[in-house]
Amino acid sequence: MILTGPEITAAADDGRLRITPFDQSQVNPNSYNVRLGPTLLVYTGGVLDARFRNPTAQVDIGPEGYVLQPGQLYLGHTVEHVGSDTFVPLLFGRSSVGRLGLFVEITAPIGDIGFHGQWTLMLSPIRPLRVYAEMKIGQIMFFVSVGPIAPYTGKYQAANGPRASASWRDDRRPVPVVAS
C-alpha cells in the first residue's frame, strides 16, 4: 500500500516519517516533491573501478544554474533529509524533469527502512540541460512494510550532500596482481 498525500502529512506530523524541511506545498496526491541541493559530484578518473574509491570533484550550482552534459554522470542530492523507521521510501524523477530528458535515478530508487539523510541523485541528461539549486527534481513515495523491520545501518546512513559509490567497501577480495 502506498501512502496518500494526506497520510504523508499525518505521518510527518506524528513522526512515522521525517522530512526536513517539510513544506506542505510539496505534498502530492501520493508522493512528496524533493528539491535539488546546491552541490554536485563528478567522477574525475577515466575508468571507474568498483573495487576502489574513485576520485571526484565537487561542482557548486550557482544562481545562474549549471549545465549538465550528456555522457556525464552527476551525483546530486536532495535539499530535504528524508527517512522513516516505518515506511519503505522510493524516489523517482518528476515527470516534468523526465520530459526534459533527465534521468534522476539510474538504478536505485528504493530506500531502506531506517535510512535518514539527504538522498544522492544519479543525474544523467540525454542532451545539455541547465538545472538550478532548489528546483523540484524528484518525488518520494512511501510504502507500508509487512513483517519484522531491521533498520538500515549501512555506509550511506546520515548522508549530507552527494555521496560517491562506496562499492569498494563491499568487496574485500584481494586485487589480482598482473605479472609484467
UniProtKB/TrEMBL annotation:
Alphabetized Gene3D superfamilies for the sequence: 2.70.40.10
Span list, region Disordered: 161-180
One record GO biological process: dUTP biosynthetic process
Any one GO molecular function term: dCTP deaminase activity
Alphabetical keyword list: Hydrolase, Nucleotide metabolism
Protein's UniProt keywords contain Nucleus: no
Keyword presence, Hydrolase: yes
Pfam family, one: DCD
InterPro entries noted in UniProt: dCTP_deaminase, dUTPase-like_sf, dUTPase_trimeric
Transmembrane segments: none
PANTHER family assigned: DCTP DEAMINASE
Protein name: dCTP deaminase
Organism per entry: Actinacidiphila alni
